[in-house]
Amino acid sequence: MxxxxxxxxxxxxxxxxxxAALKRTLEAxxxxxxxxxxxxxxxxxxxxxxxSAHSQQHVRGGYFLVDFYAxxxxxxxxxxxxxxxxxxxxxxVVRHPLTQEVKACDGIVPVxxxxxxxxxxxxxx
Length: 125
Hints:
26% of the residues lie in helices and 40% in strands. The N and C termini lie far apart (69 Å). It is elongated. A hairpin with a 2-residue loop joins strand 2 and strand 3 (56-69). The chain has 3 helices and 4 strands; from the N terminus they run βαββαβα. The protein is α+β, with helices and mostly antiparallel strands and 125 residues long. It has a 4-stranded antiparallel sheet, with helices on one face.
């Protein structure tokens, strides 16, 4: 199973309601076969712009990161479920950055500019 990261913005609520929404979200993930590795609370803060979700305007939200393993076939159903949850302002699932293949940088390849600039044309004899 691939490793994913769920970036979740919940609407601004008191602590018990936020905990219930997170529990509901994590149970939905696990019901669809996901294995949750970590939950990170990034805190509540002002949103970068007004977001509308479920006929409401939001200016503040709670930011959370959920690290999980899940079958590739269930990611779409997870997103569908989260988009219907009225407490979720913005869900976003991406492949975990640590599992993506990183290619080594070859650096800057030197170009022999002098040869290109000052090359002399061969004269035909």
